[in-house]
Amino acid sequence: MCIRDSIKAVAEAALRRLRTDVIDLFYQHRVDPDVPIEDVAGAVKELIQAGKVKHFGLSEAAASTIRRAHAIQPVAAVQSEYSLWTRDPEPEVLPALEELGIGFVPFSPLGAGFLTGKIDTTTTFHSTDFRNISPRFEPEARQANQPVVDCLCQIAEQKQATPAQIALAWLLAQKPWIVPIPGTTKLHRLVENIGAADVVLTADDLRQIESIVSEIEVQGARCLLYTSPRGSTSDASWGDHSCFACAPDGNRADTREKDRQPDAETVELLNSMRPSSQRHK
Ligand SMILES: NC(=O)c1ccc[n+]([C@@H]2O[C@H](COP(=O)([O-])OP(=O)(O)OC[C@H]3O[C@@H](n4cnc5c(N)ncnc54)[C@H](OP(=O)(O)O)[C@@H]3O)[C@@H](O)[C@H]2O)c1
Questions:
Q1: How many angstroms separate the alpha carbon of residue 39 from the centre of ligand 1?
Q2: Which ranges in the chain belong to alpha helices (H)?
Q3: Ligand 1 probe mutation, 31, 93, 107, most atoms within 8 A of CB
Q4: CA distances for 275 relative to 18, 257, 272, 278, angstroms
Q5: Torsions phi, psi for 200 (to 5 deg)
Q6: Which terminus of the chain is more solvent-facing, meaning fewer CB atoms within 10 Å of its CB: N or C?
Q7: What is the dihedral of CA 178, 280, 245, 93, to 10 degrees?
Q8: b/e per residue, 40-57, with b = 16+ CB within 10 A?
Q9: Cβ(57) to ligand 1 under 6 A?
Q10: Is the beta carbon of 193 within 6 A of some atom in ligand 1?
Q11: 6, 102, 34: which is closest to 240 by C-alpha?
Q12: In angstroms, what is the C-alpha Rg of the chain?
């Protein structure tokens, strides 16, 4: 199947699963180093022209890739890891997004939970949890990176907030076009995380956070190598992050999601926000 047909098949499968006739934001998730980004942008452009997609997004793309894609089909949003312990997008990607008027969606904004202060060297994870194989979650790295959490706890106490809220408020304070997407399976944490939008960090607070965190050298690579469907690999620490998250049939080889089911209260809340035809049982 050519790349154009493959992307269209992914879109059709997503439309079916979402039980909708248009996808608001269709991300390439992530960049495939074996496929010219112009071909990807061209395929998404056709989907937009056909009314099946409204906006085009990229995930973990390098600034140069974003520019090339944007020249073919304007990119609406880029989703990459960004938080107080993962500052990689700052030198190149964020300036490019600002210049081009593209929104930024930080994933893992709570450092996959570490920045909330609820994880220490003794915390264990489910056997399928990626943190078991993430260098950044090795016990030595957790211990070495604890000062980042201590900083968040210190500011949280001053602001009568929680460390998770400070981690999110810091992201929100960076640029008005930055929209973090924290993940949780618990309703009370969802409410807590939404509360971050009401936490105001002053210029002095931001300077204090920066002066503490800039002294800390974060230990442990943030993730492992990714392999594209055609076998090329790329490293999270430079440029594009490779691979499509969805196979053309829409099946994701991602046990992590299956093991992180939301609690009953959260399912009920989410269902109440959906049209009845889209509610989960
Ligand atoms: N584009 C990509 O390649 C990519 C990669 C990874 C993730 N993502 C997306 O990014 C989003 C979030 O990322 P993420 O889930 O990896 O990381 P995250 O939001 O940084 O952290 C989520 C973890 O923190 C815990 N947590 C959440 N709120 C908390 C709070 N207030 N206090 C204490 N613990 C809290 C959650 O546990 P509980 O569930 O127990 O609350 C979970 O273990 C998801 O939508 C995900 O799909 C995208």
A1: 31
A2: 3-18, 37-49, 63-72, 93-100, 139-159, 163-174, 187-194, 203-213, 255-258, 264-272
A3: 107
A4: 11, 23, 8, 6
A5: -100, 120
A6: C
A7: 0
A8: bbbbbebbbeeebbebbb
A9: no
A10: yes
A11: 34
A12: 19
Give the residue-averaged pLDDT of 40-68: 98
pLDDT at 247 over 60: no
Q: Domains plus CATH for the chain?
A: 3-274 (3.20.20.100)
Predicted TM-score (pTM) of this structure: 0.86
Pairing, β 75-81 against β 53-59: parallel
Is the minimum distance from the CB of 125 to ligand 1 under 6 angstroms? Answer: no
Tokens of 80: 């990459």
Tokens read off for 107: 């994933």
Structure tokens at 68: 């090339």
CA of 117, closest atom in ligand 1: 33
For the stretch 206-222, pLDDT in tens is 999 999 999 999 999 98
The two tokens of residue 123 are 């915390």
